[in-house]
Amino acid sequence: MKKTTLILAAALLCVCLLTGCGYSLEGGQPDGEVVSNDGIALRQGDYIYYINGSMPTLLSDALSGSDQAAVFRMKADGTEKQRLSTKKTYAIYVHGEYLYLLSPVSADRLAIYEISINGGMEREIIKFENTGYYAFSDYGVAAEMKNSVLVYSFAGRKSWRINDVEDVSQLYGADRLYYYSSRKAGIMAVDWNGGEPEQITSRNGRIKGVKGSNLYYIKDDEKLTCHDMSTGEESFLTASKYKTMLFSAQNNAIAAYSEEKTAFYIMHLDGSKRIQIDSGEAVTAYAVGSDRVYYCKNSEGAIYEVDYDGNNKKKIADISALNGPGTTDPDYYMDIVDKKLFLFDRSDATVYTVDTENGEVKNLAKD
Prior knowledge:
Layout: E1 5-6, E2 18-20, E3 34-35, E4 41-44, E5 47-51, H1 59-62, E6 70-75, E7 82-88, E8 91-95, E9 98-104, E10 109-116, E11 119-129, E12 133-136, E13 140-145, E14 148-153, E15 158-163, E16 168-173, E17 177-181, E18 184-190, E19 198-199, E20 206-211, E21 214-218, E22 224-228, E23 234-236, E24 244-248, E25 253-258, E26 263-268, E27 275-279, E28 286-288, E29 292-297, E30 302-307, E31 314-317, E32 334-337, E33 340-344, E34 351-355, E35 361-363
Antiparallel strand pairs: 1-12, 2-11, 3-4, 4-5, 5-6, 6-7, 8-9, 9-10, 10-11, 12-13, 13-14, 14-15, 16-17, 17-18, 18-19, 20-21, 21-22, 22-23, 24-25, 25-26, 26-27, 28-29, 29-30, 30-31, 32-33, 33-34, 34-35
């Protein structure tokens, strides 16, 4: 799972099998390679799926038929751009033949919809109040409800509940579903297909990533901790506090912003070899790619890139990225799909691409 957020889900009401008419396109490659799943843009095979700008502020606009915040699909070369769904959405996730959308239903409700990667029939699978947490993963989706969590497993496309869970403080999707409650000490984990939850840690903390048997989380003191799930041993990886942090298992690295020091860093997963990349202003929007980190400097209205070893830092485009709502991660409105950076512009909240090789900026809502 790439992202976790607090913008929904405290009273999950039901799992519905409601269907509705949608768009119906040809093509789609359900067995294609997936790149940058979970966010505002992703690629499956030769097709890119993306959200056409951030969610409108007014509910009437959010529920309207306009293209703002709707899901679009195009070929990887930018051709055949078409709207895919009647729904507007905050985030998209793909699994095989289906896309999963996080969409508003009313002033205080959201829903997760399942739709074909070619459009077609739309199915509401989870509906809930918009004051809690949700999670996407390669194994299913989950959302918080009052005193429980509802899980929709892709295996068999079935739903089930984790009961007796009060005040969930985070859901995190990986090989298992990880979560913790503000009313009970310890991060828990449960298989996506069901079973008894297992207590992983004795303390709570914001989960940042899972790699192998290691669970990485930030305790209340905002210090990064590694918990070895095979041995139960814990180690503090950083002495500094970090306001935000992104985890790149592929690069064995972490990108983090320290509000205390007003500085942006890259370091190894074990906290070693920390390199200061920038300082002097808040870095609120950034993303980790396959070989580089991208971040926005709002004072300059510019996007920068830097290697994971801290070298080759340079400005690649003059555009300012919008940061996500609430307590969302700094990449909530930024995604790297191959060599293209997708982002929502701070000035008009529409979706742009930045070619990371030549710096070309395109407004997908207009081009």
